[in-house]
Amino acid sequence: MKIALLCSTLLALSTGFAGAQTAPAAAAAASAAATPIETKIASCIGCHGIKGYQASFPEVHKVPMIAGQDARYLAAALNAYKKGDRKHPTMRAIAGTLSDADITDISAYYQQQARPAAAPEQPAPAPDGVAALLAKGACASCHGANYSKPVDGTYPKIAGQHADYLYVALKSYKTDGSAQVGRNNAIMSAQVKQFTLAELKAMANYLGALPSDLAIVPQSKFR
Ligand code: HEC
Ligand code: HEC
């Protein structure tokens, strides 16, 4: 009985919100409810929800796909921007406006947004030179045999992510002493130090061409 009552109250609130733009009374009711997810992600769509959208800093590359990533990794990444462990200025500014509850809600939303067919357990074999690099870094031991099944939910899926973004991300772990570029992450900083830029690019190109759990889900701005 109580549950039924709660459900109908929630339903009334959400229905109220749908009509909020036209009915002031409904708007008042809606403002008492939690901020809807559409509002929380409205500012993300213009970059992460557009196929082929490119960023120009620190060099031209596609904006990373976040739909289909594990919520725990998305939250870890957003918190790293917020704390300054990831220095990318735009994402720092954006993450800085998010509360802990926003980060939890947004991360859960993007995890479920993409539901592609799961990537095959074993990826296509890497060309010899690249296979040796991946073996040297034991990349699969953390990111999964198919690079879509990380051993820990806070580690990213990297298979099929945009290759140009993967390269920029890998380079950023190598960058020290810049206020604008770089990521402080003990694991990946140690990893990338053993490779040249050309080697990082070769791995990024291979990984970016693999079947992916990630996607871009185009959305128009809500309402
Ligand atoms: C102006 C374009 C832009 C907007 C708006 C934007 N992002 Fe980003 N986002 C980027 C770029 C570019 C990167 C890559 C940054 C880097 O190199 O670290 C990124 C990185 C990320 C990452 C890390 C991805 C990964 O694989 O590590 C997450 C998570 C993320 N954004 C979430 C969001 C969310 C959530 C919003 C909205 C609240 C948002 N972004 C708004 C451009 C944008
Ligand atoms: C010991 C575990 C471990 C190993 C080994 C490892 N990684 Fe990672 N990787 C991580 C973690 C954890 C992160 C997230 C770091 C952060 O929060 O910035 C990450 C992040 C990344 C990213 C950034 C992804 C994104 O969306 O921004 C790329 C690319 C990457 N790893 C590629 C590799 C490659 C290539 C190798 C092998 C040369 C490798 N990793 C080896 C744990 C590992």
Q: What does this protein look like?
A:
Helix 4 (71-83) crosses helix 5 (89-96). The protein has eleven helices and two strands, in the order αααββαααααααα. With 223 residues, the protein is mainly α. The longest helix has 17 residues, at 2-18. It is 53% helix and 2% strand. Strands 1-2 form a two-stranded antiparallel ribbon.
The percent range for helix content is 40-55%
Which ligands appear in the coordinates? heme C
Q: The biggest beta sheet, please?
A: 2 strands, antiparallel
Number of helices: 11
Give the topology string: H per helix, E per strand. Answer: HHHEEHHHHHHHH
Uncertain runs are 1-30
Beta-strand share of residues: under 5%
Number of DSSP strand runs: 2
Mean pLDDT: 87
Question: Strand order across the biggest sheet?
Answer: 1-2
Radius of gyration: 20 Å
Structural class: mainly alpha
TL;DR?
This protein is mainly alpha-helical and 223 residues long.
What are the SSEs and their pairings?
Blueprint: H1 2-18, H2 24-31, H3 37-48, E1 54-55, E2 61-62, H4 71-83, H5 89-96, H6 100-113, H7 128-137, H8 139-143, H9 163-174, H10 186-193, H11 197-208
Antiparallel strand pairs: 1-2
Helix pairs in contact: 1-2, 4-5, 4-6, 9-10, 9-11
Summarize this structure as a short list of keywords or feature phrases:
single chain, 223 residues, mainly alpha, two-stranded antiparallel sheet, 11 helices, 2 strands, globular, binds heme C
